[in-house]
Amino acid sequence: MAMVIVGITLWYSNHIAEKIREGEHQKVELWSEAIQRRAELVKFTEQLFDNLRAEERKKADILAQVYQILSDPNDQSDLTFVAQFLPDNNPSIPVLIYDDEGKLVNSANLPDEKKEDDRYIDSLFQVMQSKYAPITFPEVGLKVYYNDSYLFMKLQSTMDDLINSFISETVINAASVPVIVTDSTQRRVLKLGNIDTSLVATPELAERKIGRMREENTPIMIELPGQGKEFIFYEDSVIIKQLQLFPVIQLILVGAFLLISYLIFSTFRKAEQNQVWVGMAKETAHQLGTPLSSLMAWTDLLAENGVDKSILAELNKDIERLNTITDRFSKIGSNADLQETNVLEIVQSSFDYLQKRVSSHVAFSVKCEDTSITAKINKPLFGWVLENLVKNAVDAMDGEGRLSARVLEEGGGAVIEVSDTGKGIAKNKWKTVFQPGFTTKKRGWGLGLSLVKRIIENYHNGKIFVKSSEMGKGTTFRIELPD
Question: Check: CATH 1.20.1640.10 for 335-481?
Fold first, then answer.
């Protein structure tokens, strides 16, 4: 049910994100189309300005001819046209007329307050001289300099404002789309908007950012008057990118929640298992206490009746062993008392005891190069570990084979390796053998190796694992105890 809820939630979140993403893309498409249309409008406006400029040039030529006639009229000159042109067709074109010696002989359409301002006239002359070639009349030695009319200059200023406004609105767009405007080379950044300037701080960074934006969307080409071709690069807005990540983030959060829930559940389950183990162990120790007391009394009674002392000695060993087992069970769930112990001695002692109580066809051996190796061990619990390993090995060999133990020191800690020549364990079962309930026997609960793992890891802070095993040839268990 949790997975179904998670699936539905993720699907619905992704569905909403897709809808918003489609809406954002539609805005970008409309914005791109508006850019194209406005670029065409600007271009068309510039063409109108060119036509106006040509018309003003013609009027300037006519105006120059008018001034020529006025400056040198003759008896045959018809001044009727001149008299009509000046008041009716004056295009308000500023005009400066100079003679061959560079002396100002006349002017027209200058502001009244500037007509006597020599600095203004010189500045205006520099502008006129750089902007248009003068109209010359060599026969009378005059040069006519002119500029755009005041009306045209006002229109031109409006046109420049329109272009700047167009660029600004392109860069700072309503859709909050990251935008970069480049020149015709598509490398040099002219303007940018909704982008961190550090991402284009150097030409290399700018080229890398432009390349990524080119891969995401085809750039828009525009051609603006006096500026040539320019390219607009854009990418998805920050909101879209966040929406794309939202389902992933949600999945991670839900996954983390499920993982934490599982860990909590697993912790409670392990705690419950531990309580079962502890309860069963202590109950077993309690149940063994009564018959042990009776057996000890019976041995005393048999000794008084003259029973063979060798038989009583062996019987007492078994009673002592039962006491040890009872002590082991009683320690489950309590803090183990670890003492520095000679590892070889406890391994040899366990092997000597068990060798007399298993098949005589099993050969026991213990190897150790350094007899002084020690580790912090709880003797009753560790002896239980060795006993379980030996019994499992004897069962795996069907009561016939070789069982060996090897004691060595590695990394400052003690290592015990117990090897047999039994049936072996399949590699995919190497970890499963330590799980409660795993057994290959017809009888038994499969708790031996699980108990061994608990004793080594929980009480001795060590490790136990299958070092090697080969089907039909035998198995080696390795125990590692810290220093």
Answer: no
